[in-house]
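Internal ticket #5521
Category: modeling
Description: The requester needs a full-assembly model to guide mutagenesis choices. All entity lines are attached below as received. Residue total reported by intake: 608.
Assigned to: D.W.
Attached entities:
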Amino acid sequence: MSDDGGPAPIIQVTDVVKLYDDGLVRALDGVTMSAARGEFLAVTGPSGCGKSTLLQLIAALDRPTSGSIVVEGRDLREAGNDTYRRTGIGLVFQLHNLLPNLTALQNIEVAMFSNGRSHGEQRARARELLAAVGLGAKEKVTPPRLSGGERQRLAIARALANRPPILLADEPTGSLDSAAVDRVLELFREIREREGLTLLLVTHDAHVASTADRIVYMRDGKIVAAPEADVPAAAR
Amino acid sequence: MPFLALITRNVLTRRVRAGLTGLAVAIAIMTVVALGVLTHSLRRTAISVLQTGSADFTVAQKGVSDVLYSSLDNSQVARIKAEPGVQSIVGVLVAAIKLDSNHPFFLELGIPPDELAPFGVQILKGHPYTATATNEVMLGWRASQDLHKNVGDVINIDGNNFTVVGIYSVGNVFGDSASMLPLTTLQTNERKPGNVTLAFVKVTPGTNIDALRKRIEQANPEIATVRTQSEFGRVDRNLSLISAANVGITIMALIIGAIGVMNTMVMSVFERTREFGVLRAVGWTRARVLTLVMGEALLISFVGAMAGVVLGYLAIKGIQRVPELVGVFQPDYTSAIFARALGIAFGMAFLGALYPAIRAALLVPMEALRHE
């Protein structure tokens, strides 16, 4: 249970500080926030505000300088986050980070090594995901031969390979044209409905953020109140 | 996708670099195989000289560069014969001559006829030579077949005509490919009166052979006794030097190959830093990243080793054609040589890939993902 008596948040970030360059750069400055299970949360703010750093810490790609991050009751400061990254979350990056020498199908399969399933099951799951993101006919195509939107959809498929309860996306539409952005947002909506997962999306795009259940604003490494212009007129 | 398939695909993605690294491994393994076969075969040939007789151990002059340069005189042989526990001792003079271009290394063994039986000689055809005959010779059955000479035929050896009076067998290839003649005749022809090359000792039943050898060597510091192949270096420094060179070159090949593999894998890991960051980000463990890099190095080295074995075989075929080695060098391909080559290839892969693999495994995912 949470402090207010509601259901415990699936992600709880408490007073997190992240320093770089021997403390010269304060990327996060006492960030506290949470996300409820099944929620679509957008974190937005200007470039350099620390939103991507926050996502990376929640993804256990790095460790906070201080503070705690608890995901599904697990404190990420504890050693050994490989299993958490493999099955606890799915990660989508702005630049896709696909492996260029592997086919679309293999890019999904590499995320499933060590998940305890047979090669046959892994392949079936990869095909199922490719079909779900509309790339069923391109399983043997390598990423350099896919369009930007297709690459991002492939990256989303890879992130879902191990059926994670949380999907973390860092500027997933940042390098896409408007048609591809709409297609990716539609895909996120379908996935949420189908898989019932929690989606935490970092974006500087107000249109993309507006599709979320809730928006968290950041500036200079801190959570801030919504800028006046972003508050819906009815709520002013 | 099987893990091995991923390893193979990664290697094939960088074909030229992997190919060049594999070639470096192949050349190193070719050297190891060719030298290994050469050394082993020369050792086997030389040891065959010592094992020609049916003896418990062999006595030779200590520390000569080649066992055929060993020289023992009558008094030394007599002293050994007098040692308690020595049942019999057969002094044999060994001479190597060039019979013709097809037989550049033909052995003559000088043995008194009354010592033939203790030496383990079995007469297959004809009869033994007489003790003082200067023109009688016996041929080993292999030599007889190879030279197309039979009992009653005449053979010219080193400018002298000999009549073949018998065909013998001693039960090993080396001895059966040689000739035998009276000791005194060979001593005269070789201008080594009273000298033999080797002495073959049989002990009385129940004798402690090693204790007897020790007594003989203590009483005769200028001679050495040989019972096993590993002791052969005591009476043949050349072969010891060749063996030492073989070990040295093998180590050098291992180091050079490992550096080649390391260079390739370090470059590969550096270029693929972002890829390893992605793999760590999707949940790969450090151990799996380490296994991937090691696996790629092992695959390159294994393929290189296979090519190296083939190149080594071809190199041996080439060496066999060198005129000086025709007839002397009979290649002996043992599984141990190939096992060693494979072991060295894996050693190259392991040593060469260890540092880059650890480096890849220890990458912090976020830093790796930022890598350009």
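Resolution: model delivered.
Comment from assignee: The mean pLDDT of chain B is 88.
Ticket closed.
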